Amino acid sequence: MSLGDWFEERTGYRAIVREALDEPVPGGARWAYVWGSALTLSFLVQVVTGWLLMAVYQPSATSAWSSVAYISQNVSWGWLVRGLHHYGAQAMVVLLVMHLGQTAIYGAYKKPREMNWLLGLGLMSLTLGFALTGYLLPWDQKGYWATKVATNIAGSVPLIGGWTQRLLVGGAEYGHLTLTRFYTLHVAILPLGVLVLLAAHIALFRKHGVTPPRKADLSRVDRFHPKQLARDLLIGLVVLGIVFALTLRSHGAHLDAPADPASDYPARPEWYFLSLFEALKYVPGHFEWIIAAGIPLVAGGYLVLLPFIDRKPGSSLAARLVWLMPLLLGLAGTVALTVLSMRKDAADSEYQKARTLAEKRAARALELARGGVPPAGPLAMLAADPQTRGPELFDKHCASCHKLGEHVPPDGKVTAPDLTGYGTEKWVLALLDNPDAPAFFGKTPFAGMMPSVTRPPKDPDAAQYFTKMKPEEMKAIAAFLVSEAQGKSKKGMPGEKMVRERCTSCHRLDGKSDDPESLAPELRGWASVRWIEEQIKNPGSGKTYPPGAMAKDLKGHMPAFQDELEAQEISLLSRWLYEQATGASPH
Amino acid sequence: MPEDPKTSRRGALTALVVAGSAVYAGALAVPAYRFLHGDDAGGGAQKERWIRVGKLEALPEGKPTRLSVIGEERDAFNISRGKLGSVWVMRKGKEVRALSATCPHLGCSIDLGGDNKSFACPCHTSRFNLDGKAEAGPSPRAMDDLGVRVQDGFVEVDFRRFRQGVPNKVEVG
To answer: Does the predicted model carry a pTM greater than 0.90?
Structure first.
């Protein structure tokens, strides 16, 4: 007795396999019948890749983004698995339309198949539910803002809106509980729903069989295996091939910057919801739920009723065209609105600018995440990153007076030294030549306090004693100051000697100056990160400028920031400022 | 005609089975509902929460500035200091005004229009004038005004959140 026979005797499995494979296909196997199988196969891809993602993903507001970035960047083949899941989901949406279209065109919803049509619609809703819940899970800007819009739409439905919204969001604000709820829906409830409905869908399909076209030769009957099965599998493979190709082309799914509730972000839904998004722009006031919830409801209602209103026997397409018109018009409208939305965005320079900024943030966040994210989360990581936080802090606190490269005061009025190139030889030489130039002290209360080393003073008496500094001496002083900025000074630099001879009549060097009343700053460590830090904390501490530099009558002097900014922010800003100004990394 | 005792027993049993099933389902459904919805009454006015957002003198005259609202907030099982949202703050002489940057339409983050003379939502193209009044697009109400005060030279905002997509300003929290 073979093993198979032994097993057969105890289970009767052969009859089950035969039942599955030998199903008759009246009218013969057809390419038109492949879509249901292709959908089921795509769902399997989602299940397997989903399990793999679950093995790494963590649903919490502080770790979701990091775990997805980890999958995309660190986990071996993680980008591929996530990419397959992402594009697989989109393939399912496309296949859904094909399957629904084929069923509608062939009239396969008609008696006695009404229930199976309804089950199919249920499966379609579940699939869209997967798409909506899955979009949020990476907890990136894209998912966060788009889902916020989606749940707010749910919230604007009269009577039950607020209740539904709180149930979905897990409270009033987005956070951990929103993620865990969406996650539970995505990995437990929706899959279970699909499993149950799909089993019933397939069972009913087997019961009623295919709906061949009117002109089909019904005397010809194929078996499911191998003719139809081969076709189904081939299409499944082609779809999988396309999903692989899309994944490889973009090296996996895109991940936006981590969700930041305080940021500006041009939210857009996934492409298959763009038509609804576009429609929302045209609905006035508080009626958006009519569009966002009403259109799907009307469309769903029409689809549900279709088999009950189109009851004439026979499957002639021409006779049913009137009933299928709403479907065709709906599809055309969806395509038109989607294209319109895409074209509007492509032509909108503000949107493109915001998109570029978002891409920049995303790239930096991913770059940082490669080395690991602190447990406090990706936002804390970005807040400690000079390259991200530096420009934000500078724009907010410094750029109202200072200029630094492309960072300029919003009103264009620079009232403090231009920090572009601050701490470099070029900057020092230009300052020595003309300290009262608008880019230096010209527009500050310190104007007229520092004399030029190349231009005689205006006062004829003082001009008498003026000797112009030689270029090589200026270069030596600049070399010394630049080495101070870089923390690379060596003992006995010629520039240091010159500074002692020519500059300490006003300036301090190691705290010593010939004129203790002078407002000229300390030159030891000038423009170094430490010096900048002290200057930002308190420009009158004596560590940079003397207390007199903060005198009340010195209108427009630099304020102290030690009460306004946290120590970490000052240190971060100083590092960034140094890097930006000198183009070098700090010592 | 008297009812057949067999049938009536059967009917009673059926009723019992139905009732039993309902009890069984309810025993799961009621805790599930309480678990998911808690004692959440749907918000309502919250306590004042004054948060320092920036220095008064750093605000340019007449031009709105977006300021992050950083404060302590509890998110389920975590309490942390972080970004709660952002506000648009504008100074006109001595008067300071703060508007929530959350679009009252569907919650996107409102931007300053390219001309600096209006606010614009980048999602569904709602536009507001600099006072926050809705001028175009689908927003059902004006931008949400927030309490603002100046203390020791710092601007402080009473940070609150409101329901979106409704014509009235209803606080949630």
So the answer is: no
